[in-house]
Design a protein that fits this description.
This protein has 283 residues and is an alpha+beta fold. It folds into three domains: 94 residues, GIY-YIG endonuclease (3-Layer(aba) Sandwich); 97 residues, no CATH class; 64 residues, no CATH class. Helix content is 34%, strand content 22%. It contains eleven helices and ten strands. The strands form three sheets. A four-stranded antiparallel beta sheet has the order 9-8-7-10. A three-stranded antiparallel beta sheet has the order 2-1-3. The longest helix has 15 residues.
C-alpha cells in the first residue's frame, strides 16, 4: 500500500554522510545536544537525554523528523553530570537561543494561576503576585483564557456554582440557572453549604497546587558522578547556572527576573522526593 509519509521521508532524507564521524563519536552520557543548519548562530533543535548518542540516533529513525534531518549540517553536544543538569541546561538554552523546531519550553514571562479567596476562584498574574511565596495558588497557565477554562471544567465535573466562583453574576437570594439544569449542587440557594462547595473545589484543584519556594534564598543542587561534581544554582525556582566549585556557586548574585514555569516543573520532583539530591544553602 502506498504510504505518502514514507515516500516523503525517502525523498527528503538520505543518510547524512557528512555527519557520520560526529554520530559515531557521540557520548553515551547525560547532556544536551544541538542540531545546526547552515547558520550556527541559529540552532534548529535542542534536546537532552541521559544517553546523548542513543537519543540523537533515534531522531534518524523517525520519519516525522525528515524536515529537521534534511536541514541539519552539524550536531554539537554538552555533557552534564546527571539528568537534573541536562534538564536545566536544555530549558535555559531553548529560552535563550529559540531553536526553530522546539515547540515547548519557550520563554513565558507572564503566567497565570488560579487563586482561591473564599468561594471565589480568581485568575492572578505572575507580574502582580509572587508565585514563589503565595499560598492558595493552583496551576500555571500561559493565558487567562486557559485558566478560566480549567475553572469551568472543574465546576462542570463537580457541580460547582458559576456564580459563587465568580464566573457569572448571581442574583441575590436566587438559584443560578445551572441549578435548574441539575449542573449546580445549590450553594447559591442554600441547598449546599459553602464549606462543602469549597472542599470539593479544593479537592479538585489539589493536584495543581503551586508549591512555595522552600528555602530562604539561593541554593546549589549537587550532582556527582565518577568523581566529578556540578553545582546547579537556583533562586526562587529560577535557574542561574551551573559551575564546578562551591566557591563559584556562591558568586551568583543575580536578581530573579520572573517566575520560571519550566524550572519549577523540573525541580519540584527532585526537591520534594525522599531521594532528593544534596542541597547546599547559599544564603
Amino acid at each position: 500500500m502506498w504510504n505518502p509519509e514514507k515516500e516523503l521521508f525517502t525523498e527528503l532524507y538520505k543518510y547524512p554522510e557528512h555527519l557520520r564521524h560526529t554520530l559515531e563519536n557521540l557520548p553515551s552520557r547525560s547532556g544536551v545536544y544541538i542540531f545546526y543548519g547552515d547558520d550556527k548562530a541559529f540552532p534548529l533543535y535542542i534536546g537532552k537525554s541521559v544517553n546523548i548518542r542513543s537519543r540523537v540516533m533515534s531522531h534518524f529513525r523517525n520519519a516525522d523528523e525528515a524536515k529537521l534531518l534534511h536541514m541539519t549540517r552539524d550536531i554539537e553536544y554538552i555533557e552534564t553530570i546527571g539528568e537534573v543538569g541536562a534538564l536545566l541546561l536544555e530549558s535555559d538554552l531553548i529560552k535563550n537561543r529559540r531553536p526553530l523546531f522546539n515547540k515547548r519550553l519557550r520563554n513565558t514571562r507572564k503566567l497565570c494561576s488560579i487563586r482561591l479567596h473564599g468561594l471565589t476562584a480568581t485568575v492572578v498574574f505572575s507580574n502582580e503576585v509572587d508565585f514563589s511565596h503565595t499560598d492558595d495558588l493552583y496551576g500555571l497557565f500561559k493565558t487567562k483564557m486557559s485558566a478560566l477554562e480549567k475553572i469551568r471544567d472543574i465546576a462542570d465535573q463537580e457541580k460547582l456554582c458559576y456564580g459563587a466562583l465568580g464566573l457569572e453574576k448571581l442574583a441575590k437570594n436566587r438559584a443560578c440557572f445551572r441549578f435548574s439544569l441539575g449542573k449546580c449542587a445549590g450553594v447559591c440557594c442554600g441547598k449546599e453549604s459553602p464549606e462543602a462547595h469549597q472542599e470539593r473545589l479544593k479537592n479538585a484543584l489539589s493536584t495543581l497546587k503551586v508549591r512555595n519556594w522552600p528555602y530562604p534564598g539561593r541554593i546549589a543542587i549537587v550532582e556527582e558522578a565518577s568523581g566529578v561534581t556540578e553545582y546547579h544554582v537556583i533562586n526562587h525556582w529560577f535557574y542561574l547556572g551551573t559551575v564546578k566549585t562551591l566557591e563559584d556557586a556562591k558568586k551568583f548574585d543575580i536578581a530573579v527576573p520572573h517566575f520560571d514555569r519550566d524550572s519549577y516543573k523540573i525541580l519540584c520532583k527532585p526537591l520534594f522526593e525522599t531521594d532528593s539530591p544534596k542541597v547546599i544553602l547559599l544564603d
